[in-house]
């Protein structure tokens, strides 16, 4: 009997296991399945861990989670695994198009994912062929055409391996290494190299007389901000349910100061208030079909290219149509569709491009946040960049499907991923309420935006001395790194991945990207090496696939393709 190991049981691993069992049941085949996962709640991964605090919110609308569909009943190896409800059925979700979108705590989805996994494990435990191993995998090697997988206490052998391990830490940047050394020689200072698990910050939570620097101005910063300020001395209160306008009230005087900063200092852009406003930015089915065709013409290499015009031009065409349709919402301009397309292309190609229709990034950060909140509420005319970002979000699933495993030059792949990453300030934006909380903390003199744009940083005995362009200074004795590492395979520093690289069992698609894989998820080995039976799904395959950070991509066709390919290989042998 063939033996398969699955390393990592987050949402992607869960869906892979489900589809594997479905395909095995169709083929009336049976294998040995061992699942390796070191977390306390299988099915969730770290991002959706059900033990995390309620202050960590989902940043995708609960409405959009309709993509997590129900699991059918599976008859496998003389056991029956009952069907499991979709996320919306499970939480009895209902909402009309005028109600504000909901963004619950991440642990809510974590509870769903864990329950969905446990419903499988509880049945498979009856079989001798299934085993869940709560352990961290230390080493993988190929010996006599078998994969040897080692944990701290054991080594086992398998015929095939599926890696779905998600985000992995990378080698610290030069800046963080210097900070690390500085903290070692100054015991009074504290550096958190990673944001999560956020409960590691608990010793800071009720410290009311401290300056805390936060490296990064994205979603993780908001998690940090919310976790630290919902404390024994204060909390948030929404004072307008229509706009989520918020105040931060102090039950006790406090001197806590949070100082976020990033290279560009640009704030996250909140998502539209509700389905009705969001629909303003929705491309038509015909536009998405055309967009997909143009992407596939390049990704399937019927058209060769060294630019990403195949992506930016159709986005510009769709956005110009949407923006012209929005003129009835008070937008004032006399530009034609083709003139708008030129402006959109200029902005997509140059982050610093200025135009009266584009939000002026030189405005104060506070004002920028206020403006984007009002755009999300639909109470002021939207800027062209806000429109581009929302249209991009609606186009992302089509882009991810059409461009993954593209047969184009690797530099083109890198450019597409870089532009998609830049779009995430808009497309992966938080709920309006999160940005209202940022403003509330500024108003309460707890969070300062004075140093948000690339401050000079000097290391002193007192900590990190930040200086802005106006020569204003502030010193932090605690620093939290909230910047998530990009999945650059050659910089990942976990023993497991370094070992796979050293043994030539995996290789990167590009020096700045992840593992090179086939369309069905199997790794592409160096040309002088035999193929190895390792498949990789998820973040470490970034480059071969794109869109790996989205929860809905964990329940998508790439995982289904791997399961079908695995069973096809099984039958071929």
Automatic annotation (TrEMBL):
InterPro entries: HpyO/CreE_NAD-binding, L-asp_N-monooxygenase_NS-form. It comes from the Bacteria. It comes from Winogradskyella pacifica. It holds the Pfam family NAD_binding_9. Residues 5-168 form the FAD-dependent urate hydroxylase HpyO/Asp monooxygenase CreE-like FAD/NAD(P)-binding domain. This is FAD-NAD(P)-binding protein.
């Amino acid at each position: 009997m063939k033996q398969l190991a699955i390393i990592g049981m987050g949402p992607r691993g869960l869906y892979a296991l489900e589809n594997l069992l479905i395909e095995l049941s169709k083929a009336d085949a049976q294998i040995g399945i061992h699942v390796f996962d070191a977390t306390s709640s299988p099915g969730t991964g770290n991002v959706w861990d059900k033990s995390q605090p309620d202050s960590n919110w989902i940043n995708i609308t609960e409405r959009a989670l309709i993509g997590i569909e129900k699991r059918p009943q599976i008859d496998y190896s003389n056991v029956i695994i009952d069907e499991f409800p979709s996320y919306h059925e499970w939480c009895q979700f209902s909402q009309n198009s005028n109600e504000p979108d909901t963004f619950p705590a991440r642990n809510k989805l974590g509870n769903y994912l864990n329950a969905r996994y446990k419903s499988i494990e509880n049945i498979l435990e009856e079989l001798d062929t299934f085993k869940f191993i709560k352990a961290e995998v230390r080493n993988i090697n190929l010996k006599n055409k078998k994969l040897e997988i080692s944990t701290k206490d054991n080594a086992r052998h398998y015929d095939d391996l599926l890696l779905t391990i998600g985000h992995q830490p990378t080698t610290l940047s030069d800046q963080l290494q210097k900070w690390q050394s500085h903290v070692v020689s100054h015991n009074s200072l504290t550096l958190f190299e990673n944001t999560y698990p956020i409960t590691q910050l608990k010793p800071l939570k009720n410290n009311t007389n401290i300056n805390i620097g936060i490296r990064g101005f994205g979603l993780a910063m908001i998690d940090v901000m919310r976790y630290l300020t919902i404390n024994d001395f204060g909390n948030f209160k929404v004072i307008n349910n229509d706009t989520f306008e918020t105040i931060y009230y102090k039950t006790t005087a406090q001197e806590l100061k949070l100082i976020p900063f990033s290279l560009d200092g640009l704030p996250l852009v909140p998502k539209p208030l509700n389905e009705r406003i969001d629909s303003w930015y929705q491309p038509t089915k015909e536009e998405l079909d055309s967009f997909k065709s143009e992407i596939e013409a390049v990704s399937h290499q019927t058209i060769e290219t060294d630019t990403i015009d195949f992506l930016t031009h159709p986005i510009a065409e769709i956005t110009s149509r949407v923006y012209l349709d929005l003129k009835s919402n008070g937008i004032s301009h006399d530009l034609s569709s083709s003139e708008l397309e030129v402006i959109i292309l200029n902005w997509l190609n140059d982050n610093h491009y200025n135009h009266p229709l584009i939000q002026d990034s030189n405005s104060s950060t506070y004002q920028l946040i206020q403006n984007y909140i009002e755009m999300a509420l639909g109470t002021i005319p939207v800027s062209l960049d806000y429109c581009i970002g929302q249209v991009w979000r609606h186009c992302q699933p089509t882009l991810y499907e059409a461009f993954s495993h593209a047969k184009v030059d690797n530099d083109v792949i890198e450019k597409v991923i870089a532009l998609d990453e830049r779009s995430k300030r808009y497309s992966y934006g938080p709920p309006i309420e999160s940005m209202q909380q940022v403003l509330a903390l500024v108003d309460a003199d707890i969070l300062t935006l004075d140093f948000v744009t690339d401050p000079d940083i000097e290391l002193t005995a007192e900590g990190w001395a930040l200086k802005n362009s106006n020569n204003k200074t502030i010193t932090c004795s605690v620093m939290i790194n909230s910047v998530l590492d990009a999945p650059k395979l050659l910089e990942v520093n976990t023993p497991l991945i370094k070992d796979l690289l050293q043994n030539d069992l995996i290789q990167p698609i590009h020096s700045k990207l992840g593992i090179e894989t086939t369309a069905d998820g199997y790794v592409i080995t160096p040309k002088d090496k035999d193929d190895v039976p390792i498949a990789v799904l998820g973040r470490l395959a970034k480059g071969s696939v794109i869109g790996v950070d989205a929860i809905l991509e964990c329940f998508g066709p790439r995982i289904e393709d791997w399961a079908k390919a695995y069973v096809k290989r099984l039958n071929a042998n």
